[in-house]
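User: I've been trying to design a sequence by hand for this structure and keep getting stuck. Would you show me what you'd pick, starting by listing the structure so we're on the same page?

Assistant: Good idea, let's start from the same input. This is the structure you sent:
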């Protein structure tokens, strides 16, 4: 039975979706990709009396990590990311913060996840699915009991992430979409890093990756 409430805050110049996934019984909350405006996200948590318990990063680009510091300063919660994203998170030249954010961001995650690793947070079972392509350490987060996938910049509604950036690979992205995400149940709702939500079934039919 579903026990979550999900809200989205669209943050920063890249209009990144920062998701707040709360356990409705305990108010424990997972924050996905606090890309910018960290203080605004802190205020949302305080106002709604949410209890942040962890930050999940789908990948290391500046527009997905810019709000992390304000949140960890306020709530002292661990940051989760793929073990394959360590270098990009640490390197402002690779995470593009030096170029596009106007200041350098260098992050060291507290928990490094491997492909297929399962963990629980806020009372939810979460499976980490490594989906390289947009970046080498792209990670999607799948919550089977809640029928939710956080798909980062790997899968968007009717499209997919760009592959012309440091550690990108189109061949790996295509493989990730077809063999890692489109094998999930069709009813799973996918919440991407930018734009509207979709479902696995919809993308199996409509995503242009099949012809690209
Ligand atoms: Zn990105």
């Amino acid at each position: 039975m579903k026990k979550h409430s999900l809200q989205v805050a669209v943050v920063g110049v890249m209009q990144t979706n920062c998701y707040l996934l709360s356990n409705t019984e305990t108010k424990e909350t997972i924050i996905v990709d606090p890309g910018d405006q960290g203080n605004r996200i802190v205020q949302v948590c305080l106002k709604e009396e949410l209890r942040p318990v962890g930050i999940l990063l789908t990948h290391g680009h500046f527009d997905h990590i810019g709000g992390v510091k304000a949140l960890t300063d306020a709530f002292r919660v661990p940051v989760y990311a793929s073990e394959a994203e360590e270098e990009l998170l640490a390197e402002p030249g690779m995470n593009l913060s030096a170029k596009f954010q106007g200041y350098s961001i260098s992050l060291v995650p507290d928990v490094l996840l491997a492909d297929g690793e399962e963990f629980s947070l806020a009372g939810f079972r979460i499976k980490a699915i490594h989906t390289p392509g947009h970046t080498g350490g792209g990670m999607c987060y799948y919550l089977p009991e809640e029928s939710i996938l956080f798909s980062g910049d790997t899968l968007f509604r009717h499209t997919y992430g760009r592959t012309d950036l440091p550690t990108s690979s189109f061949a790996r992205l295509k493989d990730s979409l077809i063999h890692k995400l489109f094998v999930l149940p069709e009813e799973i709702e996918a919440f991407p890093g930018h734009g509207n939500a979709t479902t696995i079934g919809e993308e199996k039919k409509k995503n242009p990756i099949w012809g690209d």
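That's my pick for every position. To get oriented when you compare it with your attempt: The CA atoms of residues 135 and 168 lie 5 Å apart. The longest strand covers residues 4-11.
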